[in-house]
Design brief:
This protein is mainly alpha-helical. It has one domain. Helix content is about 65%, strand content about 5%. The protein contains 7 helices and 2 strands; from the N terminus they run ββααααααα. It has a two-stranded antiparallel sheet. β1 and β2 form a beta hairpin. The longest helix has 15 residues. It is flat. The N and C termini lie far apart (about 30 Å).
Length: about 100
Amino acid sequence: MGYSGEDKKLDPEVLRKHIYGGHVAEYMEEMQEEAPEKYQSHFAKWIEAEVDPEDIEELYKGVRAYCLTSFSSVSTAACTLGNQAQRPLFILAQLEGKT
């Protein structure tokens, strides 16, 4: 993500977008508009947690900061959780003391 093998250059904006979930937010917005029923099903846990596409970057920043400062206290389940899309929500729940 963000690296062109042809040009051998890194695009920091593309990399940043992926690190902070910009691609997820775009996908959520696209699905909301084009397939609302699929959106409701696919992002049910995110909707339940009241996470909107515009909240994704802050969520990812918070999760990243928490993991960098407190990795040993984050359950290994957060790192090995099978559904990659649920990892930020799982860690968010730990931050809020819900697990």
